[in-house]
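job 3f2a | input accepted
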Amino acid sequence: MLIVAADLHVRPETSGERAFLEFLEWISETTCDVCFLGDVMELWIGVPRFGDALQRRFVEWCRREKGRRHLYFLEGNHEFFVVDYEADGFTEVAEDTLPLDGGALLFCHGDICQASNGTHLFLRRLMKSWLAKALLKWLPGVRRIVKRIQATFRRHSRKRKHGGYLPQAELEEWVSAQRKTLPALRNVFLGHFHRRLEVACEGGVRLTVLPAWRENGEIAFYEASMKRPVILPWRSAKAREMARK
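job 3f2a | predicted structure (245 res):
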């Protein structure tokens, strides 16, 4: 069984951190593989000088659990250079897309799927570029800039509401484009939009957009024998039953 979780947006020393650590403990009691679909932290810069205790604790947990299960990690738009510095904590990592099971499964955080949002894509490339990485490593005073970015993310987090923008037609077009390089594709998992969407796309590909974990703790369960993923709050009795399969 595979568990998929997206948009946890965990911040240190909050109730979200406590819930996140309980979630990790719960996973440890199962035999499920896990895919973290991006934005695990509210802000995560992989460059070592910016690591905090919560991030280190998570990576240490991953390193321990990697010997017991497959762990996958996709960078979201709140994570930078994590795949460069923390890849050894996971079975596989990716900055953009991660195909598995011979290309039958495809995972992506989701923000890169909006071709019409050119400003976001440009800023994403800029903030994940070698230049940004060099500045984070060497620029004096860059910590103050990062603190401002963190404050911006916190303000954005407080303003975030249920039922945000979800460009379904554009996402379906993106899924169809992926079939050109992944002819065996059958299931696509996205996060980013904080809204749930399950839809059959062209060619019989099922698209699942996960709701944000941070809202109600919802995760997806999936295995090849299932017709479609099952999305449940991880604390629910049904989730505990699914995790034992």
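job 3f2a | The radius of gyration is 17 Å.
job 3f2a | closed
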